[in-house]
Amino acid sequence: MKTITTHEAKTHLSKYLAEVETGKRFIISRGKQEVAMLVPIRPEDRPPRPKVGEILGEPFEFAEAAFAPMTADELEAWGL
């Protein structure tokens, strides 16, 4: 496991994250003191991402009244 400094981690974070995604691990140190570890998250630890357009909750329907045109009084109240 490779040890990197906090400065290296800040400067090249995206590079190290790309390597972590392939399974590599890094120890992050401040000076000579090891303070953290950069490791990949196991796939089972991540909740699955919803697909585009996937309904996550219970489906619902709008009442027909929601699509009815506004009355003259309602339009006036909105300043239209």
How is the topology of this model organized?
Elements: E1 2-5, H1 6-11, H2 13-21, E2 26-30, E3 33-38, H3 72-77
Parallel strand pairs: 1-2
Antiparallel strand pairs: 2-3
CATH-derived architecture of the domain at 1-42:
3-Layer(aba) Sandwich
Query: What separation lies between the terminal Cα atoms?
Result: 67 Å
Report the uncertain regions: none
- Name the CATH superfamily classification of the domain at 1-42: YefM-like domain
CATH topology of the domain at 1-42: YefM-like fold
> Portion of residues in helices?
25-40%
Number of strands: 3
Tally of separate helices: 3
Question: Which structural traits does this protein have?
Answer:
alpha+beta, 19% strand, 80 residues, YefM-like fold, 3 helices
Explain what this protein looks like in three dimensions.
The chain has 80 residues and is an alpha+beta fold. It is 26% helix and 19% strand. It has helices at 6-11, 13-21, 72-77, and strands spanning 2-5, 26-30, 33-38. Strands 1-2-3 form a 3-stranded mixed beta sheet. A hairpin with a 2-residue loop joins strand 2 (26-30) and strand 3 (33-38). The longest helix is centred in the N-terminal third of the chain and has 9 residues, at 13-21. It starts with a strand and ends with a helix. The mean pLDDT is 90.
